[in-house]
Amino acid sequence: MKHIKFAVWASAALIAVGCSKGPTSEELVFRSELYADLNNIGKSEEWARKAIGTDAANPDAWRALGNTWVRRNNLDSAITAFDKAVEVSPDNIPALYSLSNTLAAKGTFDRALEVIRRAIQIKPDTSVGHNNEGVILTSKGQFDPAVAAFKKAIELDEKNVQAHYNLGNVYVKQGRYEDATTSFKKALTLNSGFTQCYLELANINRLQGRNDEMYNNQGLALLTQNNLGGAILAFENAVKLNPNYAVGHNNLAHSYLKANQREKAVESFKASARLGYADAQRLLSQEKIDWNK
Predict the structure, then answer these.
(1) pLDDT tens-digit profile of 37-50?
(2) Residue 32: what pLDDT?
(3) Binning pLDDT at 50, 70 and 90, where does residue 128 land?
(4) What are the helix (H) ranges across the chain?
(5) pTM: predicted TM-score of the whole model, two decimal places
């Protein structure tokens, strides 16, 4: 009797296996994305094509295929894939973004702008779409409309770091250095490790002839890249040019500390404190160090 029951169960299991379906197109796309994350573009393409073979109406499958071509820098093939994604799903925002970004990367700015504006029309309350529009307008040299687009992106998402940075870049192109400085500093309040913001600030300082601040911002940029030696040299140059530059002395002091040069750090903190820099004064007070000596 037990043998009969086992035979019936085994037959049922075989029938179930025989009728089971393979992975869905969505599951195959997920595998493609996993291999893309592992930087295995060949396998990523393989699974994207399998996803398309399973369901050619899946826009994510076409987008996954397009992403593999972007990674290979074959923009024409990527655009073809993204076009197909939009064809099968005209209102698919990720597909429209991918298509617009790739067209812009190829330099086909007019069509890129047309596509991103279509995405914005479908979903007007997304900060990313307006930021992308601003990037394309900047590339076309249309700076005033680009400023408006970046401001709209920031209005929709005050924490959109890239929009603040991009707005600063446009202001630099317009010669609006103070506005640019404000934008870059806002981006840095949101992401203090944004290396390019420090470099852009350094460039503005250079254009304005403020070389002490230029070296200071170069030093901050180098710190974000873990180049401690280069940062120390930059801060040293800043305070050599302007011995009364309190912020420069303070940043130099912190860099000396990171380099385990405590005596030099204390001297730089003292210089900063004597110039009225509150953070240096507070730190020296905690350490019970008289900065007047």
Answers:
(1) 999 999 999 999 99
(2) 95
(3) very high
(4) 2-19, 25-37, 41-54, 59-71, 75-88, 93-106, 109-122, 127-139, 143-156, 161-173, 177-190, 195-207, 211-224, 228-241, 246-258, 262-274, 278-286
(5) 0.86
Q: How far apart are CA 83 and CA 102, in angstroms?
A: 11
Q: What angle do CA 220, 226, 227 make, to 5 degrees?
A: 75
Let me know if domain 192-293 sits in CATH 1.25.40.10. Answer: yes
For 197-215, b/e burial (b = at least 16 CB within 10 A) is: bbbbbbbbbeeeebebbbb
Amino acid at 128: V
Between CA 105 and CA 84 the distance in angstroms is 18
Give per-residue pLDDT as tens, 217-265: 999 999 999 999 999 999 999 999 999 999 999 999 999 999 999 999 9
Q: What are the structure tokens assigned to 196, written together?
A: 């390019």
Q: How far apart are CA 126 and CA 149, in angstroms?
A: 12
As a whole number of angstroms, the distance between CA 268 and CA 240 comes to 12
Q: Which residues of 13-51 are buried (b: 16+ CB within 10 A; e: fewer)?
A: eeeeeeeeeeeebeebbebbbebbeeeebebbbbbbbbb
All structural domains of the chain with their residue ranges: 192-293
Q: 74 in helix, strand or coil?
A: coil
Neighbours of 188 (CB within 10 A): 18
